[in-house]
Design a protein that fits this description.
Elements: H1 16-20, H2 27-38, E1 44-51, E2 60-62, H3 66-73, E3 78-82, E4 88-90, E5 102-107, H4 108-111, H5 115-139, E6 143-146, H6 157-166, E7 171-172, H7 175-181, H8 191-197, H9 200-210, E8 218-220, H10 227-238, E9 244-247, H11 251-254, H12 257-269, E10 277-281, H13 286-292, E11 298-301, H14 303-306, E12 313-322, E13 325-328, E14 339-344, E15 348-353, E16 363-364, E17 367-371, E18 374-375, H15 382-396, E19 402-405
Parallel strand pairs: 6-7, 6-11, 8-9, 9-10, 10-11, 15-19
Antiparallel strand pairs: 1-5, 1-12, 2-4, 3-5, 3-17, 12-13, 14-15, 14-16, 17-18
Length: 406
């Protein structure tokens, strides 16, 4: 077969119009829509979107993607309730109980084809924000910057950066991601600059002469020589203008990464550079952060958040209305009936049949986002969501989250 270019696009990706009109759905949803339309089956349903368990059997995740789901379903004649963007949500893989983070009500054939993109939007975003939140927690007061967009399709770069940033990361490296977030992207130079110039000292000097003062002078110190030697040379070259050094040492060359960093810190300190920040990157894990954060000022985290363990959302009908009356109707392994979620202090979430009063002092977690196709809520700013998530992380890590039957 002759090789052919794509007819209507450069890259293998869907555009916004195709996503909005559910062209990215699976065919069996369209088959279902055709059957329902042909035989005028106009049943109204309640569908719940939930997670049964989280990676590593963790009890909590950070929900993101609600905004995009709302924009996807805007104009579709349905009602939608959801946890707020950036909310902590709970899961317990050892129990049949789950909490719906989104509830959709309406005529099924009006939104059947949207199940695919709804799940995709939530899973992609929440998987990243949940993993990023775990890095945020283990890093404590150390700086964490997203370095992950080179690992994903470029079309997803803003999604990666948004998910990391609202989960508490201090910065992002991607240019478009930063622009959409309204934050300045972080970063200085790649090894390629030093390689092309052929001399570390000259590369640092040219960088210093070229970049505006607002760009922090962080020298990459592991291109040709030992990290300690290059760090000394960087300080001798830039002096007080040197804000930090970055070690991106590959694992095959690290030996004891901690000892390398300790050597760098010592050599800088005895020369008067005790204020120079130490920033490390290169396929870091949560365990790396824990083991290094007492001697490192900041971390660049990439692959671990760009390709996190999947948060596997499901969408299931739990109620069907026939002849004006609603009936609980769940598939095998499910729980019938529309549910409410009420949160009490300490992240004790009570899941009960819709309309049941929550415990005294609790707050309902599902609030209406769409009414008959119209968005009826005002979404929070990125900074407000981020601040809320950081506050929630400080509390949930000191609690014992629990899902309870109502």
């Amino acid at each position: 077969m002759a090789k052919r270019d794509l007819r209507d696009r450069l890259f293998w990706l869907a555009n916004e119009r195709e996503i909005k009109t559910a062209k990215t759905t699976d065919i069996y949803f369209l088959n279902t829509k055709q059957v329902l339309a042909k035989y005028h089956i106009d049943s109204e349903v309640v569908m719940e979107v939930f997670v049964r368990e989280l990676p590593g059997n963790a009890p909590w995740g950070v929900l993101s993607g609600v905004y995009e789901v709302a924009k996807l379903l805007e104009g579709v004649p349905v009602d939608l309730w959801a946890f707020d963007e950036g909310s902590i949500f709970l899961a317990n893989g050892k129990s049949a109980l789950y909490e719906p983070v989104i509830t959709i009500a309406g005529r099924y054939r009006d939104f059947v084809e949207y199940e695919n993109p709804i799940l995709g939007l939530l899973s992609s975003s929440t998987s990243i924000s949940t993993k990023a939140a775990r890095f945020r927690v283990v890093a404590g007061d150390r700086q964490v910057v997203s370095f992950g967009t080179r690992r994903v399709h470029p079309a997803l770069a803003p999604l990666v950066e948004r998910s990391c940033y609202i989960a508490g990361f201090d910065g992002v490296s991607n240019v478009l991601g930063g622009k959409l977030l309204g934050v300045e992207p972080s970063g200085t130079m790649p090894h390629a600059l030093v390689q092309i110039i052929g001399d570390q000292e000259k590369a640092w000097r040219l960088f210093d002469k070229t970049m505006p003062k607002s760009v922090k002078r962080t020298a990459l110190v592991d291109t040709f020589w030992d990290e300690k030697t290059e760090a000394i040379k960087a300080y001798e070259t830039l002096g007080a203008r040197l804000w930090g050094v970055r070690l991106d040492t590959p694992s095959s060359r690290r030996g004891s990464f901690r000892q390398i960093i300790e050597e760098v810190k010592w050599e800088l300190k005895i020369r008067g550079g005790e204020g120079v920040k130490i920033f490390v990157s290169g396929r870091l894990t949560e365990e790396d952060i824990l083991s290094l954060k007492d001697i490192v000022d900041g971390f660049g985290v990439g692959t671990a958040v760009a390709y996190p363990p999947d948060v596997d959302f499901a969408a299931k009908i739990v109620e069907v209305k026939e002849n004006g009356k609603s009936y609980p109707r769940a598939k095998r392994g499910g729980l019938g009936g529309r549910k409410d979620v009420h949160r009490t202090k300490g992240y004790r979430d009570v899941v009960s049949l819709h309309g049941t009063a929550g415990p005294t002092g609790s707050k309902p977690m599902l609030r209406q986002v769409i009414n008959k196709g119209k968005i009826v809520t005002e979404f929070e700013s990125i900074e407000a969501i981020r601040a809320k998530v950081i506050g929630e992380l400080n509390k949930v890590t000191k609690s014992e989250p629990l899902l309870a039957w109502g």
